[in-house]
Amino acid sequence: MTSSPGSALAPTGTLRAVINLGNPVLAAGTADAPTGVTVELARELAERLGVPLALRTVTGAKAAFTALVDGEVDLAFLADEPARAAQVTFTAPYLFIEGGYAVPAASGIDSADQVDRPGVRIGVKEGSAYDLFLTRTLQHAELVRGTDGTAVFAEQGLDVAAGIRQPLTAYAAEHGLRVLEPAFMQIRQAVAGPRELPAEAAVYLAGFVEDAKASGLVTAALERAGQTATLAPAAGD
Question: Are residues 47 and 128 in the same domain?
């Protein structure tokens, strides 16, 4: 490893990346054998840097964010949210994922814009991108946090479940819920490094993400995983 960006991105000589298995659009498999878009991106980056790769798996974005901030890993795959951007360095997004709501079939709530009302309780996964987004945008409804938005929704008999559209839609179909339209947010999935990442390394990481989008790497990885999401446009477009 001879480049300055490589030395900064993998200061121990090994690229340490954290993979969130709690987001099935981005990662799947097991702790010993994770798969998915983020795993493929981490492997490609390590190969380009010419260093070994060490993957650490977690089950939520909050844990991934904490691992990066605490210096336990060099790289994380997170949604770019203002509450996180103050502590880490983000690239431009590589994928867009939607955050949505689901309600019981008999609910009087018919659309997403009817959710933010007094007395409405929404189940969210603590520390998720949609938890952070709703925390700063809701004015009337109450957030109830748990290890998973649908789990706390069911356990506490809440009015609304919030989550990533794909797994939320599957959950709704299995439990007789209605998914509300439109999506309440667009989740900007990006690559994150330490806040103190040197400028040259940050530019290299940003360039890697742009090339991964333009070359088809992200799209192909998504297809191999059997997942759907929207490829983010080139930075600046």
Answer: no
